[in-house]
Design brief:
This protein is of the alpha+beta class. It is built from two helices and three strands; from the N terminus they run αβββα. Strands 1-2-3 form a three-stranded antiparallel beta sheet, with helices on one face.
Length: 103
């Protein structure tokens, strides 16, 4: 990634790609009145006063939120770097599994 500023849009796009690669269901974290809860899935949580971004999981049963990757928050550049690394590992493992199966 270049030295340019990492925006919220960059973080959201990187997170969406991460979810697609790992087959995770996304949630925007907004309360759904009809369902009476926040839709189930993985979402982004940002708080500048606590240090930045983290991934959260909403259970879809209420407004309960879990930290599947831990409570630590990081700045936008490091957050995107971590998600890109995790996605590249998943893609690499799929490639290796495909090669092993074809041998």
């Amino acid at each position: 990634m270049s030295a340019a500023r990492v925006t919220r849009r960059d973080v959201e796009e990187t997170f969406s790609r991460f979810c697609r690669v790992h087959g995770l269901e996304e949630s925007d974290g907004r309360f759904d009145r009809a369902a009476g809860a926040i839709p189930r899935g993985y979402g982004l949580d940002y708080a500048s006063c606590y240090g930045g971004w983290k991934v959260v999981y909403y259970d879809g049963l209420g407004s309960y939120e879990m930290d599947p990757f831990g409570p630590a928050r990081v700045g936008p550049r490091e957050f995107c770097d971590r998600l890109r690394f995790a996605a590249s590992v998943a893609v690499g493992l799929e490639y290796l599994e495909g090669r092993a199966a074809s041998c």
